Hints:
It is a single chain. The protein is α/β, with parallel strands linked by helices. The chain folds into two domains: 2-94 and 206-246, Rossmann fold; 97-200, Rossmann fold, CATH 3.40.50.12500. The chain is 42% helix and 15% strand. The protein contains nine helices and eight strands. The protein has helices at 12-25, 47-64, 81-87, 95-103, 120-129, 152-171, 186-190, 201-215, 238-246, and strands at 2-7, 31-36, 70-73, 92-94, 110-114, 136-141, 175-178, 198-200. The strands form two sheets. It has a four-stranded parallel sheet, sandwiched between helices. Strands 6-5-7-8 form a four-stranded parallel sheet, with helices on both faces. Helix 1 packs across helix 8 (201-215), helix 2 (47-64) packs parallel to helix 3 (81-87) and helix 2 (47-64) crosses helix 9 (238-246). The two termini are 17 Å apart.
Amino acid sequence: MRLLVINPNTSTSVTARIEAVARAAAAPGTELEFVTAPYGVPYIATRAEAIIGGRVVLEILAEREAEFDGAVVAAFGDPGLGAARELMSIPVVGLAEASMLMACPLGRRFSIVSFSSRLEPWYRECVEWNGLGARLASIRMLDAKVADIGRVQAENEDLLVELACRAVEQDGAEVVILAGAPLAGLASRVRERVPVPLVESVAASIHLTESLVALQPRKAVAGSYRQSAPKAASGLPAALARVIEAGRSPRAAQ
């Protein structure tokens, strides 16, 4: 099994954190390849930045999909996830969706904790997009100053743990998701400091993708994830234009 893990922001330090957690979580025999966005922003915090990251995801998948069995969009908020599922034939999983789905068997209500209040509207919309609003206890955010995104978890660890505990004590959370690729690895390090299960989003996404690949699902030809009919495309990168013009993904064309 070969999985492509895409970091849709430009921070190689974040990719390194994602890689460390993903390799530890992957099953024996799963091969992983990691790609960092070639353009965009150091970390995604707004809807506009998410659209930019989503385009990166589509461009990389259009170029590389045929080489892999599944892919992970390694940003919480899952930029470009729905579009990737429309265009591609392999299973594509996002950190937010995987984290929330893994949280559901662990408790009735989950909270999302992260490092920047700017992320909250986007994350809340992501919860609703996945139809899990009734399971959400709260979203709690720091207002951390982010000078170096690679250090955000180390510099704010105690505050993030405090927020997670408040979500349990004050909001009724029975599971807490420490959200955002820059926080990869934090959940396993602080798990004994929070009185409910913590979900590690990168690990959750790897496990879910492996399970979906093993199920060997067919590409949808009905419903909202079917690809549209072939149409002309202009001004796009060549690989993405070919996918749109052909009306099928690179893997489907093999």
